[in-house]
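Translate sequence into structure tokens.
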Amino acid sequence: SSYGGHASIRIRYDSQGTDLYYRQGDNAPGDNIAYLQVGVPEYRISQMVKNGGNILDAYGIVNVVSPSGLPMRGIVGISPDPMMFVAVNCQDVKASRQFYEQLGFAEQEYPYCRPNKGMGQFEPVQPKNSVYLAPSKTSMGVLLLQSEKKRRAVKPNAVVQSLNIVYQPSEGADVDPNADLLKVVDPSSVSIA
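Result follows.
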């Protein structure tokens, strides 16, 4: 399809749960998910704060921890799908890349939501040494970032139960039929369902 795969967020609530994974106002409870990047026509920081968001910084883009504990990055611009990608901090980018390639992901052009493709002050360029992978050029993907603290393992963010990947490879796609696609956790402790 020329429109690609579109993303959605599935929120699950356990009314019997007693664990507190995130206290509003704190930093994210783990660092394996760097952020969910969204491209939106506009945003209002006052509304983010009013609704419990923890603003980390905001100059041209806004980095915020959502009220539920998910780190997010908002960029004013137009994207084919508002949810652009999930940025994952990796202990080993090469191992994470191999994992996602087993799922049928391939390196794609880094997505931008503004026409100047990161050359202005309101949208950053692709981070150095990062790899952007997606099932197709029109699908949401993952941005693999080398963890800044290489000697310390990335800590899973308990509020993110899993990335649910639903994708039908197109005819002729080179996907290894013998690959272990039942592996449920990527090398950066991100659960895959």
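Note: The beta strands are 33-40, 54-59, 61-65, 71-76, 83-90, 106-107, 131-134, 141-146.
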